[in-house]
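Morning. Coffee machine broken again, so started the prediction first thing and wrote up yesterday's gels while waiting. Chain of 299 residues, entered below exactly as on the submission form.
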Amino acid sequence: MLNKTVKIVEVSPRDGLQNETSLINTETKIELITRLCDAGLRHIEATSFVSPHWVPQMSDAIEIMQALPNRNTVNFSALVPNLRGLQKAISVDTKEIAVFTAASETFCQKNINCSIEESLTRFAEIVSQAKLKDIKVRAYVSTIFKCPYQGDVSIKKVIDISNALIEMGCYEVSLGDTTGVGTPNQVRALLSPLLEEIPREKLAVHFHDTYGQAIANICESLELGLLGIDSSVAGLGGCPYAKGASGNVATEDVVYLLEGLGVETNIDLHKLVAIGHWISTHLLRTNTSKVGLAMNMRR
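Came back before lunch.
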């Protein structure tokens, strides 16, 4: 039986924009976040405190956090790679941060320049320091099914890493199919043993739609009782360290699915579709939301 409420974490301001080659001005990012709030999104990953040298698109993280719309009902978060990033997050009173690792050693090295074990050691210190400031910590685990460098990833590896992140104090682990190759059978094969060790409310899924399986994979996750879904308006996003990986599953498509299943979202789908069309036009890129394209055609 499906849950009547599901948490959607909107990642377009960070994950969706970070790979854009042309720098996007701060005002446009703030407008995107404001429009998402107005559409009813209540969990928004606003930016990332990574090095501007490595991710120039996120160089205005402090300005973004300082200019966020005043919405008491919205939970804004930011990605933090290290203690330096945490200190920046603290300086602008960030209430929630996210840390990120991978289930593939090679991908972890390519992405954050350290081993999986080193990343967990680093995160343990971040979580400890964040707790002192009453900051919530969410975690990402990338390449849960396949690594673009190493190939297939072991289920046991994903389970072990997820357990370690929960045990160190992360309130939720988001499981990322970075290359978008997963299928519903693989989702069940991973989540079934994982849910025997970690409560469903502490897990979320983050699917890329490279092979068009994201919605089917979300359906499978919901059937297994998961409560959290990451998505990005207009399907914005990708991964610079996974060649060929397309964007995230589109938030419009996720909301349409949930509404069809009778799951309450409190999100205005028409406003969401308008946002997807607006940001895609602004970025001069194709809107990959099936629902967004269909509803725009109908209008």
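The CA atoms of residues 78 and 97 lie 5 Å apart. Going to sketch it on the whiteboard this afternoon.
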